[in-house]
Design a protein that fits this description.
- The protein is α/β, with parallel strands linked by helices.
- It folds into three domains: 32 residues, no CATH class; 164 residues; 175 residues, 3-Layer(aba) Sandwich (Rossmann fold).
- Helix content is 38%, strand content 10%.
- The protein contains 18 helices and eleven strands.
- A six-stranded parallel β-sheet has the order 8-7-6-9-10-11. The protein has a five-stranded parallel β-sheet with strand order 1-2-3-4-5, with helices on both faces.
- Helix 13 links the parallel strand 9 and strand 10.
- Helix 3 packs across helix 18, helix 9 runs parallel beside helix 15 and helix 14 packs antiparallel against helix 17.
- The two termini are 39 Å apart.
């Protein structure tokens, strides 16, 4: 998603499929990331010869449970609690001779043919030059007891070591369970990542929603939300506006602002802040996203709203919530699901043309609109904030607001009364 990576891709496209001149400058900038290093392996892989994968035979890795909740779940599964740690492999150098092959896509569309042509060059070295060594190490240090189920929330995409290990277990008969790791899943009109995760897993644990076209989707307690403590709404405190940020060029394909559409998203943020009353503006904190992606958000706010306090996104959000009267969510992701779960008074606004919703989710978001929680227009949202500012807890406690939020959470931020027991059942009942 960085400029160096995109420049390299565009240069290849220009060189191979256009007449544009391309000048190579060796060593000008290092591409971020390490394609030869396999970053992490579950601790159970390293030490399972001492019998870590026992009991129900469920191997948990990067499941987004708080440490104490993960220990409780493993005890419920009659397993010895494990500690996840990292195991790195030596970096492998790319060998041009071993990349002298082609992917046959002559019958595909132009996009498919372009991708097929680039694969030999961009395939990570851990899957080619370094694969034999990595595979041997994983096989040698693998578990003496094969797990019956391997579970993760995000290692299927971010942890090559775990992927290699999990692949071995699945070849031996283990089931692959992927747990939803954040918001937007089930609510966005489309998501390439969601489709991929459902397709590769034997069971996909959603945060409450169902997918009639994919029976492997099973509602279960949201691992990231389990154990969150409910907060008491505050009569005083700050107004916290939480912002998103996206790469300046397309990356993942899902229902969010893409590329230059982000400018419209940023404009909406300024429109909201500008329409707030003086009383609210004096208490406003704008939390920027810690990943700026070259948008220079901090300077934009200094230029447009120099009087407003900004947070760089690196401070502890929980600490900010300790002093927050009203939480303002500005994008469809995990952020407002966490504030709902913690009982923090919350309003939301975003442009529905950028944040398209799935048909199944629209009725539940409509409930939030009718309750004055969700708005399509930033100024309308700001005027609503002005009207409730003097007694936010009373507005939040009103029956229509609580009914809408609770019904929404049952579908998209479900925790339940016995979350760990319900989670155990989702992992062991087949």
């Amino acid at each position: 998603v960085g400029d160096a990576w995109n420049e390299r891709i565009f240069a290849d496209l220009a060189e191979r499929w256009t007449g544009l001149p391309v000048e190579a400058v060796e060593g000008a900038q290092h591409l971020h990331g390490d394609s030869g290093k396999i970053p992490a392996m579950p601790d159970m892989v390293r030490q399972s010869r001492r019998g870590r994968v026992s009991g129900a035979g469920v191997a948990l890795h990067s499941v987004y449970l708080h440490r104490s909740e993960k220990i409780k779940l493993e005890l419920l599964l009659h397993q010895i609690p494990s500690i996840e740690s990292k195991l790195s492999f030596p970096k492998a150098r790319a060998d041009p001779q071993r990349r002298n092959w082609v992917v046959n896509a002559t019958d595909g569309d132009p996009f498919t043919r372009v991708i097929a042509d680039l694969i030999p060059k961009y395939l990570p070295t851990c899957y080619l030059e370094g694969y034999a060594d990595a595979y041997s190490k994983v096989a040698a240090e693998g578990p003496a007891r094969t797990p019956r189920v391997v579970v993760t929330a995000n290692a299927f995409s971010s942890d090559d070591g775990w992927k290699m290990w999990a692949g071995l277990q699945c070849e031996r008969g283990a089931k692959l369970v992927i747990a939803q790791h954040g918001g937007h899943y089930g609510t966005g009109d489309w998501s390439a990542s969601q489709m991929h995760e459902i397709a590769i897993s034997d069971r996909y644990l959603s945060w409450g929603w169902r997918d009639l076209e994919h029976p492997t989707v099973r509602p279960a307690p949201a691992t990231k939300l389990i154990g969150m403590v409910r907060r008491r709404p505050m009569q005083t405190g700050r107004c916290l506006q939480v912002l998103a940020s996206f790469p300046r060029l397309s990356y993942w394909m899902f229902s969010v602002p893409i590329g230059p559409q982000c400018q419209g998203y940023f404009d909406d943020q300024f429109a909201f802040a500008g329409a707030l009353s003086r009383q609210v503006r004096d208490e406003l904190i704008v939390r920027l996203n810690s990943n700026d992606y070259g948008w220079d958000q901090a300077q934009r706010w200094k230029d447009v709203e120099p009087e407003i306090t900004t947070d760089n996104g690196r401070s502890d959000l929980s600490t900010l919530l300790d002093h927050t009267r009203l939480y303002v969510a500005t994008y469809n992701a995990t952020t407002f699901l966490e504030s709902f779960t913690q009982g923090v008074p919350t309003v939301m606004f975003w442009n529905p043309e950028f944040w398209e919703l799935s048909e199944s989710a629209k009725p539940f978001f409509e409930l939030l609109r009718e309750a004055g929680v969700l708005f399509d227009d930033p100024v309308t949202c700001a005027l609503h904030v002005n009207s409730i500012w003097e007694d936010v807890p009373a507005w939040w406690a009103s029956s229509n607001v609580q009914s809408a939020v609770n019904e929404f959470c049952n579908q998209y931020a479900f925790v339940g009364r016995r979350p760990l027991r319900d989670l155990k059942a989702a992992l062991t009942h087949w």
